[in-house]
Amino acid sequence: LDLDTAKEELEEFIPHVREMSDTSIRKMAGRDLTRFKHFKQQGISIKFGRFSQKENDQIRKNIKEFLSLTGIENAEKLLFTCRYPEEKETINRLKSEFLFCEKIAEGIPRPWRLIYYRARKIFDPNNYKGRYTKEEKEKLKKYHAIHGNDWKKISEMMSRSNLSVAMKYSEIKSINYGPWTKEETQKLMHAVEDVIRKRSKLEAEKCSSEKSRRNLSIDREKLYQKLPWTEIETKVGTRYWRQCKQKWNSILTNKMSRGQQLYKGTKGLQAKINLIKRLYEMKVEDANDVNWEELSNAIGDVPRAYVQAKFYRLKVSCVPLWQRKTFSEIIDYLYDEKLPELEEKL
């Protein structure tokens, strides 16, 4: 396909495709377009966001089958071939011969690149090494001063994954962990405003009529969905991206609820009761299948991240051994054990 046709066809599945680089679009057209069309015929929509347990299991199954098919010794050799220079040529030949790209993505309605990154995260032995020690944090700062954002090189020196070292550096370079100052809050609000204005300008340029440009409004969802938090982190300067996201959600919650204390006292009890009941009625097997937007109404007019955070606190504080339970088991426990207690208290 030529580039314009690829953009047009992919836009049905990836709404933001025109914001991507030409190289990424060409790769996606080659790896994903046929898969996306096949999923559409089955009535399956393309997914983004967190991977479900079912999808993680499918990735593990696909990798296991590919290893069995090719005789490659383990997942690390398959996914981190550069760590094995002596076997690199053989492994790459086998990957090409047995259609690695197609096989790894089988049965998963997501862009190939996201599936590949997820597989690397699951199977990287350097990815689950616990908390960073003081010495490791100092090393990380030193290596970053020398190598900048070359996370691949730094990860090899630290024996940690690329993602792990990048995320940890983002966290430790911040100098402020206390309450937000007025200046920091203003910087955050200006940073979010900048990225939203930039997006809105791009959309306005796509509009054909001058009237459409004049009447362009910002949908409320754009205030809290898929914001580029690492870019916002850079603009704020003194906080890392997760702090920025949490602070922004608290600002939005306060604005949208007009400052009402939605999770205090009697209102808080009612909100928990409503949340448990609505989750139980949904009968979903995985947290990724929950429509958190719709659930916002169970607590009040708030961002979905606020509801997700409240649910997390609820399960951690009320469900024993929640880490070992499936999502549906957690909901059943809350409904059977916690709900009657909350209703009586109310």
Automatic annotation (TrEMBL):
One Gene Ontology MF term: chromatin binding
Pfam families registered for this protein in UniProt: Myb_DNA-bind_6
GO cellular component: nucleolus
One GO BP annotation of this record: termination of RNA polymerase I transcription
InterPro entries membership: Homeodomain-like_sf, Myb_dom, SANT/Myb, TTF1-like
Domain of life according to the entry: Eukaryota
Classification via SUPFAM superfamilies: Homeodomain-like (SSF46689)
SMART domains hit by this protein: SANT (SM00717)
Domain Myb-like intervals: 124-169, 172-252
Residue ranges constituting the HTH myb-type domain according to the UniProt record: 124-161
PANTHER family, A to Z: TRANSCRIPTION TERMINATION FACTOR 1
Protein name: TTF1 factor
